[in-house]
């Protein structure tokens, strides 16, 4: 098994965090970014910037931390550890265990969700290393990914016929996509469109406006996020917020009026965003959230309606391994899973009205 070591990032590395993360083996992820760390800092987490070194590469990982009396610290590697090698994950997390013990950090468990494609081998490796499968937390643990490296005409031809025809019709009918400034009016409008879409097409629940406002502001202020809108009769009918982070762009948030007349408007928003992201250097476009591949036709799945739209761009759904936990202190972890986590969630939700994770 390869050997790794772990440490906290230096001040110089933290200052260059996004540059280092996007140079990771897997190209990084927007949920490992400095912007996301700034958001989660205001929502119950302490961001830690951790470097894992060894086996010929360095991996920079955002760790979200929560501390609990008597139990110690819970570490959550959002979309990490960043590696392309499944077999390296047990050794990387062992490095975190050794680092925690030597530094007296008192971490009782680590939660991971690496962007490794789900398969029997992945389940065998992670289970064999003592990891415990947990419910997935991120919407794009199953998602539609689109290769946007081809030139625009070939890229358009590569879309699924439903998406390609919608884009072409919207262009013929001169639907206009507007790039909007990240101000209060834009964000309020975006949020209202999201609420309408979630109510109509999903049984999930949106976070509070203040969370999205900070999320959008953090990414937009760093030049890593853009708003796109379509209007009908002066009223916003489609909206999207798209993040460009390294070689991957992500359709993070979106919404639309359920009754509108411009055919293909939501598809054209994506097409314009895709081409903008391509110009910024992205090679892949994550449509961020579908049902798992084997549940695409399940009309009861909370992402069914969203999945129909997103798979009109890329028919193939990619399932990642999702969320797993590894106990560092088995007794304290047992207390956490049997009673403490439930109490912590209830207290946090009651106090803030927001999600725990």
Please describe what this structure looks like.
It contains twelve helices and 14 strands. Helix 3 (34-41) runs antiparallel to helix 9 (209-221) and helix 8 packs across helix 9 (209-221). The radius of gyration is 21 Å and the shape is globular. It is of the alpha+beta class. It has helices at 11-15, 17-21, 34-41, 89-102, 120-128, 152-158, 161-172, 184-201, 209-221, 265-279, 304-310, 330-352, and strands spanning 4-8, 46-54, 57-68, 72-77, 107-112, 132-133, 142-147, 178-180, 225-232, 235-245, 248-256, 284-286, 317-319, 324-327. The protein folds into two domains: 4-138 and 322-352, Gcn5-related N-acetyltransferase (GNAT) (Aminopeptidase); 141-319, Aminopeptidase, CATH 3.40.630.30. It is 38% helix and 24% strand. The mean pLDDT is 95.
Q: What would CATH call the architecture of the largest domain?
A: 3-Layer(aba) Sandwich
Major sheet size, sense and barrel closure: 7 strands, mixed
Quickly count the helices.
12
Assign the CATH superfamily of the largest domain.
Gcn5-related N-acetyltransferase (GNAT)
Number of domains: 2
Shape: globular
Radius of gyration: 21 Å
Care to count the β-strands? 14
Strand content: 15-25%
- Uncertain segments of ≥5 residues (pLDDT<50)? none
What's the CATH C level of the largest domain?
A: Alpha Beta
The side-by-side strand order for the widest beta sheet comes to 1-2-3-4-5-14-6
Arithmetic mean pLDDT: 95
Order of helices and strands: EHHHEEEHEHEEHHEHHEEEHEHEEH
InterPro entries: Acyl_CoA_acyltransferase, FEMABX, PG_Glycine_Bridge_Synth
Pfam families: FemAB (PF02388)
Organism: Arthrobacter cryoconiti
Family: Belongs to the FemABX family.
